[in-house]
Design brief:
heterotrimer; A: 290 residues; mainly alpha; ABC transporter involved in vitamin B12 uptake, BtuC; two-stranded antiparallel sheet; 74% helix; globular; C: 311 residues; 15 helices; 2 strands
Chain lengths: 290, 405, 311
């Protein structure tokens, strides 16, 4: 079992898978870190983005990587609008209500997609969809390697935004001390919506990276939500670097535990890490001490 | 009919007010004989919704056909469907059967997944309401002694046995070139149940099961599973999955250039799916499958296939199994000459129906299980799916082992 | 005393339902609604009164369900005895997970996530462990006798689940008036202040979680007897965790009647939207989701809060 012929590909593969997880988690961690809410609609929004990428390819012939350029701003606006005009006003700032509103949103989005496009599983077939690069004993899928690169770039960009732009600073200020930020003239409702928009924009990119090797149906996005939560916790809620590193770690953990325990039981590895981190270091690897 | 009035009609049917609706029906209908209500239960929302939607297509097509002339022994009475959405949960299925019962349905057809079939047939049994299982393959559905429950298609036991028998025939004919197998299965009732049977029976027949890998539905990535397959290099890979996972697995195998002597699936969700063959012809090539399949020599089946494809839908097993199950019920109604539940059950028990499109021969039910029910083996050859076993239905010779790319 | 009389009145009223309608559709609907009310009441003890939001009540529901089922199927134990042990097992899981999380000082969303993770671990283990039938699931043998906790008619099931709900109402009412209840609310309002006045916060939270888990586990046991089939996704799936929190939050969190009210409203809403949209898969749930958001928007304190404001 310890043969490097299996181990090396498994680790590399875990890193590639983990990168996409990280991107989904990036969106979640931003929203979590700033709004302090658990966004139940995250999976449904990812599905929504996957459908958008699918139809961009089917109807407009757009390559998913190209489509990402257009979909990212669109989904930013969608996320902004959702937080500003639906979640914010409907939730009255109560945690439990935000929970229900995002839950309601998830139900609405998922079933609207089901109603509009039916339950058919859809895939796209790209000329490079089956290309591989050989790294030692491993065959790595080209679209997944590209995805890895894009995720690193997006994470870097996001980190720069958070670090050096005024909006980024305002986001961090609101995350740390909402009241203080409000008193110093920051429009908290706007910042909340911007954050939600950024989180949703990450999903648009993730969807475009997934589509060449994955499929889409009205439930496709849900598969990535729980694992994204795990990553958010592992990386520290609100931490961009944490989400990236956490995603890669979880990808490798999933890969290896799947290898040794079987794919079914292997999922347990992720949740055990999740529980251990929560119990012993709830601030995560990169989170600031609560 | 406008959408609104249709909704209104549905509303009336599915409530206790159903009886009142019958009185409101035009007099012409009654002159022809009171329509017989039949529940069409499918999971059309939730995780199983694709299969549910396909099943509904099959049932609807059968009803159109039946209603062209009506049930003769009932004065040309039409069958009026009462559609129910099980929402992909047993509770949902149970609630819908309750509604169908109180709407005065004479029988229920469907369920699709084993867990829903178990709950729904049991609820139907409370009211001696005849229940015809469309797909659900768990053997416990028919072995637990419910008098009202009938299954046209095969269960696990028969599926596993046929799969193994055909595998041996295939392998023997090729000079026993394969000895080792690896089983990849989804971890709910159908995949686990099959894997368990295969694991006990394959070694008895001289095959060595190198590894059995269960995986959840949905599984996001199959690269590791395929890496393992490549490292263990089994002669035969046996997948038993739902559609999406099967496609991912086959695509990943193609990508990683893993080509065992055969990919021999048992109920391989996509392996005998026209959708898969059309969308990923290369990944699907030469894949064999032991699965539910229509009788390719039956002109009625081919006609149905054309009809479904003309609608822009894929001719999947849910379609023709539901189509056949509804026809089976219509035949029972015809012979019972009554919408009385006990009489329908008696008619089903003595059923020798051969007007379906499955390769089962005339039906014969023992404890609710159709004795002739059996899967067939198919193989993807060119851009089509051919039947390779059993001989009397075969449309092509198997290509085994898989040619090297 | 007045409040106990009102419980008695509500329960008596509900008990008449099977006498008023012979419709099994209605009875089945009420059974499922009451089941959700019971599970939701469990959540309410911990989430409503204790302020500890759990996303993982499936862990207790599923444990109750599996323990009852497995004891009958594999050990031939009487179903009623199985019920008692099932509830105890659920409570035990509650105590263990509670001890682990509260000792580590988890609060708020951290606590919510850890409960979710516990439920997921149990779900995954149940999907591979031989004792639960792994993926094949556990089927309780059909045997319609009262000794086996299986009935031909829906009415006995209805009265039994109503009795459970009634017991949970009384229990929560008792708790409200007790010292323990006061401590629990104090912990919810301000944990540090509660600690400062000498309340053993950890113990109070643990007791609440154990009680909460026991009530929810009772729902799981009932589910097993009513449907006779379990698999990992049914018993430990996220669906029940969501139902458990939906009912009390919609109905009115931290109130005796909240979960019952919420369950009836949510389930009725589900049925009405289904009837209104007919055969359009998904459309009913779109409307359901929209109404859910509107309810939250216009009744932020739940329906009980709305009623209180009107009163």
């Amino acid at each position: 079992m310890l043969s490097p012929i299996i181990l090396v590909p498994a680790v590399l593969n875990g890193l590639l898978t983990g990168a996409v997880y990280a991107l989904v988690a990036l969106g979640l961690t931003l929203i979590y870190g700033v709004l302090h809410i658990i966004n139940f609609a995250h999976g449904a929004l990812l599905t929504c983005a996957m459908f958008a990428a699918f139809f961009a390819h089917r109807l407009l012939g757009l390559d998913p990587y190209l489509a990402a350029l257009g979909l990212t701003p669109v989904f930013f606006c969608l996320g902004y609008g959702l937080q500003r005009f639906v979640i914010g006003p409907a939730a009255h700032g109560e945690d439990r209500n935000i929970l229900l509103v995002t839950l309601g949103l998830a139900v609405v989005i998922e079933n609207a997609l089901l109603y509009a496009f039916r339950a058919d599983t859809r895939t796209i077939n790209l000329p490079y969809g089956f290309d591989v690069v050989e790294v030692g004993p491993a065959f790595l899928s080209v679209p997944r390697v590209i995805g890895f690169g894009v995720v690193i770039a997006v994470a870097l960009a996001l980190w720069l935004i958070m670090r050096f732009t005024d909006t980024g600073k305002a986001i961090r200020a609101v995350a740390r001390e909402k009241l203080g930020a409000e008193l110093s003239g920051i429009d908290v409702a706007h910042i909340y919506a911007v954050t939600f928009g950024l989180g949703t924009a990450c999903l648009a990119i993730a969807a475009c990276l997934l589509l060449p090797t994955y499929y889409v149906n009205p439930h496709a996005g849900n598969a990535f939500v729980l694992i994204a939560f795990t990553i958010v916790v592992l990386g520290g809620m609100g931490s961009v670097a944490g989400a990236l590193l956490g995603g890669l770690i979880i990808g490798v953990v999933e890969s290896l535990s799947g290898l040794y325990l079987g794919e079914s039981l292997g999922q347990v590895g992720i949740f055990i890490i999740f529980i251990l981190v929560l119990l012993f270091r709830p601030s995560g690897l990169f989170g600031e001490r609560a | 009919m406008s959408l609104q009035s249709l909704n209104r009609r549905r509303f009336l049917q599915s409530t206790a007010l159903g009886a009142a609706a019958t009185f409101a029906a035009p007099a012409v209908l009654r002159a022809q004989g009171q329509p017989v209500k039949v529940g069409i239960l499918q999971p059309v929302s939730g995780a199983m919704s694709y299969s549910g939607q396909q099943g509904r297509i099959g049932a609807t097509l059968a009803l159109e056909e039946i209603n062209a002339s009506g049930i003769k022994s009932l004065g040309g009475a039409k069958i009026e469907p009462v559609f129910g959405d099980a929402q992909s949960t047993p509770e949902g299925g149970n609630a819908e059967v309750e509604k169908m019962n109180s709407a005065g349905c004479a029988a229920v057809v469907g369920g699709y997944v084993s867990s829903i079939c178990l709950a729904a047939s049991q609820t139907a049994a409370r009211y001696d309401l005849p229940y015809i299982v469309d797909v659900g393959v768990a053997d416990s559905i028919v072995t637990r002694g419910l008098k009202n429950t009938f299954r046209l298609g095969p269960g696990f036991g028969v599926l596993a046995k046929t799969a193994i028998d055909n595998l041996i025939t295939l392998n023997d004919a090729a000079g026993k070139i394969a000895k080792t197998v690896m089983i990849i299965h989804e971890d709910s009732a159908f995949g686990s149940g099959l894997a368990k049977l295969l694991n006990t029976q394959l070694p008895e027949k001289g095959f060595q099961v190198i590894e059995t890998i269960p995986h959840p539905t949905p599984t996001r990535d199959f690269n590791n599973v395929v890496t393992k397959i490549r490292a263990s290099n089994p002669d035969i890979v046996i997948p038993a999955d739902y559609y999406n996972e099967y496609v991912l697995l086959a695509r990943t195998m193609q990508q990683q250039k893993v080509r065992p002597k055969a990919i021999y699936s048992v109920l391989g969700g996509a392996a005998s799916s026209y959708k898969f063959v059309k969308e990923f012809p290369e990944a699907a090539q030469y894949i064999m499958d032991c699965n539910h399949w229509f009788d390719p020599k039956n002109p009625k089946a081919l006609e149905l296939k054309k009809k479904v494809e003309a609608k822009g839908e894929f001719f999947t097993y849910e379609v023709y199994m539901n189509y056949s199950a509804v026809l089976l019920l219509a035949d029972a109604l015809e012979r019972a000459a009554s919408a009385d539940r006990a009489k329908i059950i008696a008619a089903l028990e003595s059923s020798t129906f051969s007007g379906h499109v499955m390769p089962y021969g005339p039906t014969k039910f023992v404890n609710g299980q159709n004795q002739g029910a059996a899967p067939v083996n198919t193989q993807v050859l060119g851009n089509d799916i051919q039947v390779i076993f059993p001989a009397q239905f075969a449309s092509a010779k198997p290509v085994y082992p898989m040619p090297k790319a | 005393m007045k409040s106990y009389a009102s419980i008695a009145a509500v329960v008596a009223l509900l008990a008449c339902v099977p006498l008023l309608t012979a419709s099994n559709v209605a009875l089945n609907f009420m059974v499922v609604a009451l089941l959700i009310a019971l599970v939701g009441q469990g959540w309410n003890v911990l989430g409503g009164y204790g302020g500890q939001y759990s996303f993982g009540h499936a862990a207790f529901f599923g444990t109750g369900a599996y323990v009852t089922a497995i004891l009958q199927v594999h050990y031939g134990l009487n179903a009623w005895l199985g019920l008692v042990i099932g509830i105890a097992a659920g409570a035990l899981i509650g105590a263990i997970t509670g001890a682990l999380s509260f000792r580590s000082g988890l609060r708020g969303s951290y606590f919510a996530l850890v409960t979710l993770a516990f439920a997921e671990v149990l779900r995954i283990v149940a999907s591979v462990a031989p004792i639960t039938g792994a993926g094949v699931g556990t089927l309780i043998k059909l045997d319609l006798r009262w000794e086996t906790f299986q009935f031909q008619s829906r009415a006995p099931f209805y009265w039994i689940i109503l009795a459970f709900v009634a017991a949970s109402l009384v229990l929560v009412k008792l708790m409200e008036g007790s010292r323990f209840g006061a401590y629990l609310v104090a912990v919810r309002e301000n944990e540090d202040a509660a600690k400062a006045v000498g309340i053993d916060v950890l113990r109070v939270k643990l007791a609440a979680m154990t009680l909460s888990a026991a009530i929810t586990a009772a729902g799981g046991c009932f589910y097993a007897q009513y449907f006779l089939f379990l698999d990992a996704g049914i018993a430990y799936g996220p669906w029940i965790s969501v139902e458990a929190l939906l009912a009390p939050i919609i109905g009115g969190i931290g109130t005796v009647y909240g979960p019952l009210l919420g369950a009836l409203v949510v389930k009725t809403l589900g049925e009405v939207t289904k009837l209104a949209t007919g055969d359009a898969p998904g459309l009913d749930l779109v409307i359901y989701g929209c109404v859910l958001i509107l309810v939250v928007a216009f009744a932020p304190q739940g329906i009980a809060g709305l009623l209180r404001r009107r009163a």
